[in-house]
């Protein structure tokens, strides 16, 4: 077997929050063949499989994940532009894709400038910002699972607000997007404007996993609702609800997964009590993590 499988790799270093325990097994496939090999390895051992990108939407249990964690590298993390299309590996960082698109004078991906993840992570939850999302520009994604690889359209992926129908064990290996011609200067100006908006409203230079909850069907966003519940700055253990934006949890000092879960449970309880709303988490869980029922 070409792909190396490591035991007990601690996942906290692969997440932007910086919390979480070890994976039973960890591998970095760098080609489609290596990916298929790693999936077969897990299947032979009856181990569940999860793929991680930059861990920017991920809360990992302190007890870790009992399964194989994949992190795509090599050709599965590369990006190139041809004509008006972006071809990217599932592990390609959004920042690299945006850079390639800008250098080629292609616009439409600027909304991703403040989404610190990968192409595969974006497909998984139809990442989006400022009125655009993956579904707006994605043509198709190559999904690999134990049945083999197949190309799926946004409709087949079931993309809607921060959601796809993908399940663990299904790996987004590649994706193709159609962008449109735009002068490089205009792209730079768009990015600068969106980054300024982001900086004005959300915590920067803090370890977070992005938005904690999806926005509910309510006149208040999740952030405004939790702010009205008096939760800004509320702290449990090493985790704190951002004093700047109440829909973010910051790693204030050695946060554990359990601290973040306890904060989320408290936030849901208060939003339910004050507004009758059941907040749904946007952050993805990996390992044995559960929010108590309301
Ligand atoms: C400061 C900050 C700001 C953010 N702002 C936004 C925002 O504006 N809009 C937004 O939508 N999100 C935002 N996020 C959340 C996050 O960046 C996005 O959800 C991003 O798309 C996650 O990508 P990732 O590669 O880090 O995925 P991860 O966090 O590593 O994984 C997230 C999920 O995707 C799955 N996954 C990852 N890669 C693959 C793959 N190749 N194949 C199959 N499954 C995969 C994982 O198993 C997991 O379930 C923000 C996060 C931070 C920290």
Describe what this molecule looks like in 3D.
It is a single chain. By secondary structure, the protein is α+β, with helices and mostly antiparallel strands. It has helices spanning 32-44, 94-103, 119-125, 134-137, 154-157, 184-201, 222-228, 257-275, and strands spanning 5-7, 23-27, 49-52, 58-60, 65-71, 79-82, 85-89, 106-107, 128-129, 132-133, 138-145, 148-152, 171-178, 180-181, 235-236, 239-241, 249-251, 284-286. The protein is built from eight helices and 18 strands. The radius of gyration is 19 Å and the shape is globular. The strands form six sheets. Strands 6-7-13-11-12 form a five-stranded antiparallel beta sheet. The protein has a four-stranded mixed beta sheet with strand order 1-2-5-3, covered by helices on one side. Strands 15-16-17 form a three-stranded antiparallel beta sheet. Strand 9 (128-129) and strand 10 (132-133) form a beta hairpin. Bound molecules: flavin-adenine dinucleotide.
DSSP E strands, number: 18
The run of helices and strands is: EEHEEEEEHEHEEHEEHEEHHEEEHE
For the terminal residues, how far apart are their CA atoms? 47 Å
| Fraction in beta strands | 15-25%
Main sheet characteristics: 5 strands, antiparallel
Q: Strands of the largest sheet, in order across it? A: 6-7-13-11-12
Q: How does the helix and strand content classify structurally?
A: alpha+beta
What is the helical fraction, as a range of percent?
25-40%
Q: Choose one word for the global shape.
A: globular
Q: Report the radius of gyration as a whole number of Å.
A: 19 Å
pLDDT < 50 runs, ≥5 residues: none
**Ligands, ions, cofactors:** flavin-adenine dinucleotide
Number of helices: 8
Residue-averaged pLDDT, rounded?
97
């Amino acid at each position: 077997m070409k792909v190396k499988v490591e035991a007990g790799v601690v996942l906290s270093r692969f997440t932007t929050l910086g919390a979480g325990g070890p994976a039973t097994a960890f591998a970095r496939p760098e080609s489609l063949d290596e990916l298929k090999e790693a999936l077969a390895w897990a299947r032979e051992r009856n181990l569940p499989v999860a793929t991680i990108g930059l861990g920017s939407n991920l809360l990992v249990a302190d007890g870790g994940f009992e399964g194989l964690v994949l992190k795509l590298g090599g050709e599965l993390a590369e990006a190139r532009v041809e004509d008006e299309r972006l071809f990217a590996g599932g592990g390609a960082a959004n920042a690299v894709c945006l850079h390639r698109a800008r250098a080629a004078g292609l616009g439409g991906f600027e909304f991703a400038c403040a989404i610190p993840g990968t192409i595969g992570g974006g497909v998984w939850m139809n990442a989006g910002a400022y009125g655009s999302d993956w579904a707006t520009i994605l043509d198709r994604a190559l999904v690999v699972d134990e049945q083999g690889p197949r190309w799926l359209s946004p409709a087949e992926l079931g993309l809607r607000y921060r959601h796809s129908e993908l399940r663990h064990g299904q790996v987004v290996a590649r994706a193709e997007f159609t962008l449109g011609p735009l002068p490089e200067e205009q792209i730079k100006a768009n990015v600068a404007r969106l980054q300024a908006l982001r900086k004005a409203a959300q915590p920067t230079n803090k370890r977070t996993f992005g938005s904690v909850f999806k926005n509910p069907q309510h006149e208040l966003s999740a952030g405004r609702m939790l702010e009205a519940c008096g939760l800004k700055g509320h702290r449990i253990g090493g985790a704190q609800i951002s004093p700047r934006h109440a829909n973010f949890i910051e790693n204030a000092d050695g946060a554990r997964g359990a601290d973040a879960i306890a904060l989320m449970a408290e936030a849901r309880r208060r939003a339910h009590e004050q507004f009758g709303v059941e907040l749904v988490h946007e952050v993805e869980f990996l390992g044995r993590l559960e929010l108590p029922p309301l």
